[in-house]
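Journal club prep — side note

Before the paper discussion, L.F. wants everyone to see what a predicted structure for a comparable chain looks like in token form. Sequence:
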Amino acid sequence: MGHVGHMVSRQRKLVRLVTAAVLLGSGMTATAAGSVAAAEDVGAARACTVDAPRFTSYPGTGSNDPSYWPARGTWATTSTRCNDINLKLDEQRDVRTCFKSGSGWNCNRWRPVYGLQWGTAAEDVLHGTKFFLQFNGTGRAKGHIDY
């Protein structure tokens, strides 16, 4: 084995050692790591806001019924991908987030989300939290969302 071949072999051993140390520290098993590696080969989960999906809110009917997302009577659930509820709107709108609380909903304060840049509708939201959004005014809000 030449000098380059020897270096590649040492790098592979080092990668295996580091991987094993990470697995031991995280409590993952080799089987779980193999599954993770296989999942990464198929297509790694995307990072928060990378290739975030587009959305269009539903129009409101008046000052007491602003534009909203998702559909009336439904909600979205936060994922482990993001710590915040992130929006990149086509134009500036005020938004508030309403969270499931027992059999009802609690809404946070209105906050501006500026057009064509990422902003947050809510910060530090627990994973698995049910929510919906309201947009000040009755017109549809459009843009990208990730949570």
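L.F.'s comment for the group: Residues 3-43 have pLDDT under 50 and may be disordered. Keep this in mind when we get to the figures.
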